[in-house]
Design goal:
This protein is of the alpha+beta class and 132 residues long. 20% of the residues lie in helices and 42% in strands. Strands 1, 2, 3, 4, 5, 6 and 7 form a seven-stranded mixed β-sheet that branches.
């Protein structure tokens, strides 16, 4: 089975996190955390900064790693490094996604998450609960 290694930004603003809706591919219309594939020679942190710049025209500060998720999709194995991040500026532009929302812990289950992204939600709810 093919393996893919990606990074994901859990962008946090106070008691909310940023979710994006895919506009392409097999999982079109599912929700995910922004990020993407690591390139050869990149650290996860370098890949995340690059991906968020490409996807959202935004600069981020990486605050901490939250977890690494391992998930088997039907045709590949995914390793996803998830980082809690903050925006350096408040401006975001959706270059690759159909839609986006800022969700609090009560709203986090209101969207249809990709299976791998869904696995990190309990840890995110705990993170957000520490702010409330």
């Amino acid at each position: 089975m093919k393996s893919i290694e990606v990074v994901a930004a859990i962008l946090r603003k106070g008691d909310r996190i940023f979710a994006t809706q895919r506009g392409y591919g097999d999982f079109k219309d599912y929700w995910e955390f922004p990020g993407g594939k690591m390139e050869a020679g990149e650290t996860p942190e370098q890949a995340l900064v690059r991906e968020i710049r490409e996807e959202l025209d935004a600069e981020i500060r990486i605050d901490k790693i939250l977890s690494t998720i391992e998930w088997d999709y039907s045709n590949f194995h995914l390793t996803m490094h998830c980082y809690v991040c903050s925006l350096v500026s408040n401006e975001l532009h959706l270059n690759e996604h159909e839609a986006a929302r800022w969700l609090n812990k009560e709203e986090i289950h209101s969207v249809n998450w990709l299976p791998a992204d869904d696995q990190i939600l309990p840890l995110i709810v705990k993170e957000l609960a520490q702010v409330s």
